[in-house]
Write a structure and sequence with these properties.
Length: 118
């Protein structure tokens, strides 16, 4: 695996772990990220899609899928901006930036190594 694939691989593992956490113990996670009560169903659904995205990242890294690396690199730029917007509109707690900071770290890592690899 090249450096870009490695960054996508590890971010996929983190997404899988975060997704499984949301699916298994959503009420614990809700305390840190949302202002109001959110039904467990929606958190578990979010966890499923988060784990699914992580699995796709994991498999794309294993397959060295160059086009996917470019797509995910560009998409990761917008995710922190979305979280900041929902925090400023009082739909979420600032704790959501904890997850966003992890995503920023992986996004910057992917962005930097993609430039070196391709």
């Amino acid at each position: 695996m090249n450096k870009t694939a490695t960054s996508i691989y590890y971010s996929g593992i983190v997404l899988i772990l975060f997704g499984l956490t949301l699916m298994l113990i959503p009420e614990r996670v809700m305390i840190f990220f949302w202002n109001d009560f959110v039904f467990d169903f929606w958190l578990r659904t979010l966890g499923y899609f988060m784990a699914l995205e992580g699995f796709i990242c994991y498999k794309a890294a294993k397959a060295n899928w160059k086009d996917f690396f470019l797509w995910i690199r560009n998409i990761r730029i917008w995710q922190p901006l979305f979280f900041i917007a929902i925090i400023l509109n009082d739909f979420a707690n600032p704790g959501l930036l904890l997850y966003s900071s992890v995503e920023i770290v992986f996004g910057v890592w992917t962005f930097m190594v993609y430039s070196q690899d391709y």
